[in-house]
């Protein structure tokens, strides 16, 4: 990371239809002390905490679980065997 800036993540929770609660969570105050890989890992760990707190919110917020794979997606993404 070029600048020594704080790295944050925003977590949200659906309270009811049209009502949400957003919270900012600190990952680190000194981002330049870590590599991109380390920051990604730290983010992943914080995200897992958020998901464990309320798993149903994660599945609701990530619509990708509602879609089926289509063969034409293979044309967009290149996958190597």
Explain what the structure shows.
The chain has three helices and two strands; from the N terminus they run ββααα. The chain has 81 residues and is α+β, with helices and mostly antiparallel strands. Strands 1-2 form a two-stranded antiparallel sheet. β1 and β2 form a beta hairpin. The protein starts with 6 loop residues before the first strand and ends in a 5-residue tail after the last helix.
Distinctive features:
single chain, 81 residues, alpha+beta, 3 helices, 2 strands
Overall structural class, as computed from helix and strand content, comes to alpha+beta
Gyration radius over CA: 17 Å
Provide the domain count.
1
Mean pLDDT: 80
- Secondary structure: number of strands: 2
Q: Which outline best applies?
A: flat
Along the chain, the helix and strand elements come as EEHHH
Uncertain residue ranges: none
Beta content? 15-25%
Which sequence of strands runs across the widest sheet? Answer: 1-2
Q: Level of helix content?
A: 25-40%
Distance between the termini: 33 Å
Number of helices: 3
Sheet bearing the most strands, described? 2 strands, antiparallel
């Amino acid at each position: 990371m070029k600048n020594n800036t704080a790295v944050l993540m925003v977590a949200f929770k659906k309270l009811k239809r049209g009502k949400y609660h957003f919270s900012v969570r600190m990952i680190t105050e000194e981002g330049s002390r870590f590599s991109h890989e380390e920051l990604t890992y730290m983010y992943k760990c914080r995200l897992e905490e958020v998901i464990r707190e309320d798993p149903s919110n994660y599945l609701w917020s990530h619509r990708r679980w509602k879609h089926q794979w289509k063969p034409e997606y293979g044309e967009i993404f290149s996958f190597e065997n």
